[in-house]
Amino acid sequence: MNSIRACFPASRQRQAGLSLPGLLLAAVVIVVVALIGLRVVPSALEYRAIVSAVNKIGSSGANTPRDVQAAFDRFAAVDDIRSISGKDLAVERMPDGTMSVSFQYEKRIPLYGPASLVIDYQGSNRVR
Hints:
Elements: H1 2-7, H2 20-56, H3 65-79, E1 90-93, E2 99-112, E3 115-127
């Protein structure tokens, strides 16, 4: 009998680990987070493309608000930006001669049934 206890020294109360229900719960949480992440990543990548396009407008030689909007539309066609267009940009001329280009939009991502995830995106940049 003592030899059996020598092989299994820890009692069941001292053992630590993950039970089957705990493992299943952890798996469900990981799957839900992964599915939400897979739906959010394209929206975040498009936002980064919009920010990049707004930053590139300064090097495009745009001098008027209409030039800024046309330059953004050209960059949007290349980067496949569909959430906003040049007419959605707010372009303001500043007293120092530069222009402030800003944007703001809302992205609604359907999750399941009536549940949706709403993300508010915004950004701005100064153009010479």
